[in-house]
Amino acid sequence: MKIIVVSKRHGSTRSFTLGGWTRTILSACLVGIPVGAVLGYQYFNEKSSTDKLPQVATDAWVQALDEQEQQIQTATLEAERKLAALTLRVAELQARLVRLDALGERLTTMAKLDNGEFDFSRAPALGGPEHSIDGEEAVGANDFQDMLNQLGAKIEDRQQQLDTLEALLAKRKLQSDVFLAGRPITSGWMSSKFGRRSDPFTGRVAWHEGVDFAGKDGSDIISVAAGVVTWSGDRYGYGQMVEINHGNGFKTRYAHCKEMLVKVGDVVKKGQIIALMGSSGRSTGPHVHFEVYKHGRAVDPSTYIHRASR
Question: Which of 76, 124, 137, 286 could form a disulfide with 217 if both were Cys (CB 3.0 to 4.6 A apart)?
Answer without folding.
Answer: 286
